[in-house]
Amino acid sequence: MDQLLQSVTIRINEKIFIKDPESSDLGKRIIEESINMIGRMGFESFTFKKLGTQIGSNESSVYRYFENKHKLLLYLTSWYWGWLEYQLVFFTNNIADPKQKLEKAIRIVTKTTEEDSEFSHINEILLNKIVINEYSKSYLTKEVDTENKEGYFVIYKRLVNRMSSMIKEVNEAYEYPLSLASTVLEGSLHQHFLKDHFTSLTDCRENVDPTEYFTQLVFSALTSNIND
């Protein structure tokens, strides 16, 4: 299994980057340190100049990989969704029962992230925090429609569609599988954010995590539809 996981490559839309950061040691350092820095200082305070200083290289060397920090954020969030997708496919592939498969899928996309040693230059725990805190900044822009047409969000959309298909396998009569699937993915980020910053606005606590909440939400919706 370890050898299989080590062969996994998460492919990002080539239009997001100028040079593939996975193709060189410098590129991997850019990704590694950008995750560390954005996780520590936030996206607004992060700059390529600061990143260049951190990696001991010229700011211009970062621009050889990414046009701007918005494209870098798109790369990081796309990589995260791709990493989540590969887990979703790998760990549900041999589950025959639709309900068990959907329960597993919900757990994968809503759980607290643990570091995956198969990708040594990427700290998935920090990247998860970045996605929770910063993901909306990758698409709440005036360019979102153009970037969507260019395929910048294809991995995220593919993940939603995979979840939607699993929902339909449980209840093919359910009318809103895409809405429910996207609610689980987006809502999970929001609940984790509330849990960290606005605890009075969520029931998720140390003893109630978002996975428990979304599992109940999804199956309540699907069961209600069946009973109707």
3D architecture notes:
The chain has 228 residues and is mainly alpha-helical. It has a single domain (2-227), classed as Tetracycline Repressor, domain 2, CATH 1.10.357.10. 64% of the residues lie in helices and 0% in strands. It has eleven helices and no strands. The protein has helices at residues 2-6, 25-41, 48-55, 59-63, 69-92, 98-110, 124-134, 144-149, 154-170, 177-197, 210-227. Helix 2 crosses helix 7, helix 5 runs antiparallel to helix 6 and helix 9 (154-170) crosses helix 10. The radius of gyration is 19 Å and the shape is globular. 28% of the residues are buried. Residues 1-5 have low confidence and may be disordered.
Strand content: under 5%
Structural class by helix and strand composition: mainly alpha
Which topology does CATH recognise? Answer: Tetracycline Repressor, domain 2
CATH class: Mainly Alpha
Give the ordered list of helices and strands.
Answer: HHHHHHHHHHH
Shape: globular
How large, in whole angstroms, is the Cα Rg?
Answer: 19 Å
Biggest sheet character? none
The CATH superfamily is Tetracycline Repressor, domain 2
Total beta-strand segments: 0
